[in-house]
């Protein structure tokens, strides 16, 4: 993509109401714009990051055996009346009336609807177990939307739902999602710590929040210092015993949010207990028959007996992750995207738009990178070099490839790694080889 044809409204000054680094940087780097309180338009560069995150989430859900579908954002109040949640949910729910006077709502989550849909289609024990998911916009009329996309009112969530015949099966589904979550966040360059959590309006008694550590996080968290080490999430999830063993090992080291602290255990930990602030990027629940019972979902068992399936639900804050990743990965000059979620891999900078040789070399490299399938953003504008560098640093692409008149005379281009700052001069061919 040529920057001369793109829409990248970068700004120098962060707006006064942006408090945390990620919010400031998302506005400055032209990733999003707020259109109403807590509601954001995703500009081209931000949209690409959102899509990258979505793809990683999707791949790990598919790998865990979940099946993708898509439910609407607007839901009939009937589903919620049937489960008794319509009144219980409170003012966070955006309630809408259509021209016929029917009650609708903008979905804050989908337990009620998915249970009704699955109930109407699954009749036998052979239809279970199943995990279904979608990636869809949600609306919660948060009392205090803040920190940009991290606590928005409209936000993108991956929500998955599991249906099992018994408690043991439900636990397997929960464990599979548990592993999928660890893998998902690791692929984005994040270390997420699973912590026992409260279940709130979703219900149930087994629940974990996945928290990444960041000074600007909304919750205070407490954990064993073993969580500072890198971990491998290599386990065969089809081997039930291995899967349970793995989840047990991941929950063995103390980790708790503010609401779930255990004073006795903390006292034993001494100075191995660490404290930080954290951002919740995912939350999983097992709540048994809460919704299936309320909605009268039953399937016939092998002996003709009727079974009420047990459910779990599993949420990832897809749009929140954009902010969370920036919180975890930025410096004084701007964002530092981990490569798997970067909007482009390479920023190609032509230092002199008025120099024929520079233009020719830059155009040639651009064409070759595009042909090789490398995602490249080409700054071909007629601007000062300094401004171009500042923009590239701000938007944080992993590699900067710089073409200048002095280098061309010596037969070299300059390649810089945004994360490490390492810079090398090399031939255009060698640069291509490194990037492809
Ligand atoms: N139905 C369950 C799981 S599918 C559920 O709704 N869980 S949740 O309430 O914990 O939300 C799931 C994830 O969505 C959270 O972990 C968080 O990452 C994200 N999220 C929740 N509220 C917001 C918000 N206001 N803005 C951005 N992301 C949010």
Give a written overview of the molecule.
By secondary structure, the chain is α+β, with helices and mostly antiparallel strands. The chain has two domains: 3-335, Bira Bifunctional Protein, Domain 2 (BirA Bifunctional Protein, domain 2, 2-Layer Sandwich); 344-435, Anticodon-binding domain (Rossmann fold, 3-Layer(aba) Sandwich), CATH 3.40.50.800. Helices cover 34% and strands 28% of the residues. It has helices at residues 21-28, 44-63, 77-83, 85-88, 111-121, 167-187, 240-252, 263-269, 290-294, 318-328, 356-371, 385-395, 405-410, 428-435; strands spanning 32-36, 39-42, 67-68, 74-76, 94-97, 103-106, 130-139, 154-164, 192-196, 206-213, 219-224, 255-257, 273-288, 299-300, 306-307, 310-317, 330-331, 334-335, 346-350, 376-379, 399-403, 413-417, 423-426. The strands form six sheets. Strands 3, 7, 8, 9, 10, 11, 12, 13 and 16 form a nine-stranded mixed beta sheet that branches. Strand 1 and strand 2 (39-42) form a beta hairpin. The longest helix is centred in the middle third of the chain and has 21 residues, at 167-187. The radius of gyration is 25 Å and the shape is globular. Bound molecules: 5'-O-(N-(L-cysteinyl)-sulfamoyl)adenosine. 5'-O-(N-(L-cysteinyl)-sulfamoyl)adenosine is lined by residues 109, 111, 140, 142, 151-152, 155, 157, 159, 202, 280-283, 313-315, 317, 319-320.
CATH superfamily (homologous) name of the largest domain? Bira Bifunctional Protein, Domain 2
- The share of residues in helices is 25-40%
Number of helices: 14
According to DSSP, the number of beta strands is 23
CATH architecture field of the largest domain: 2-Layer Sandwich
Overall pLDDT? 96
Structural class: alpha+beta
- Oligomeric state, counting identical vs distinct chains: single chain
Domain tally:
2
